[in-house]
Amino acid sequence: MAIEFNNGQIMAHILIVDDDPAILALLSEALLLDGYKVITATNGHEAKELCHHDIGLIITDLVMPEQNGLDLIMDITRKYPNIPIIAISGGGGIKSNFFDYLSVAKLIGATHTFEKPFRICDLKYKIKEFSSLSTFTQI
Fold first, then answer.
1. Pairing between strand 13-17 and 55-61?
2. Which of 26, 95, 107, 110 is 20 to 30 A from 71, alpha carbon to alpha carbon?
């Protein structure tokens, strides 16, 4: 079971969603080293299959095959409105003078956004902010 108890607190997973294996590995390793529980998915469909009550935070890329991050954010915010979502994107040809996917992600429910490349320490700081507001925390 994904939920663990530590000092009377429920420990929830961070779900990282990205189609780039290097990004998944980098983010997972960084968060695991800080004591977080991590689950990974390579697209929105996989993420939805893993998104149960034991997910405390989702970090999702926006440009992915199968199901993109914007669709995932809309699905998650409808079904699990209390799960914070951090949207990340390097653009992938999606940012133009007319359309910025990170801004759209924020409008449809992402709690915070980061443009790739970003500093891991900035992501960790944001995660600590979220963990102080919910049952999701470090072990």
1. parallel
2. 26
The separation between CA 107 and the C-alpha centre of its own chain, rounded to angstroms, equals 16
Dihedral sign computed on CA atoms, order 33, 116, 42, 44: positive
Crossing angle for the helix pair 21-33 and 120-131, nearest 10 degrees?
60
> Which candidate, 56, 68, 60, 67, places its Cα nearest to that of 129?
56
Give the phi and the psi of residue 27 in degrees, each rounded to 5.
-65, -40
Full-model pTM: 0.85
Read off the DSSP letter of residue 92. Answer: T
What b/e string do you get for 51-72 counting C-beta neighbours within 10 Å, with b at 16 or more?
beebbbbbbbbbbbeebbbbbb
Higher pLDDT, 65 or 27: 27
pLDDT digits (tens, 9 = 90+) for 43-59: 999 999 998 768 999 99
Q: Which residues in 78-89 are b (16+ Cβ under 10 Å) and which e?
A: eeeeebbbbbbb
Which DSSP state fits 99? Answer: -
Contact 69, 105 (CB under 8 A): yes
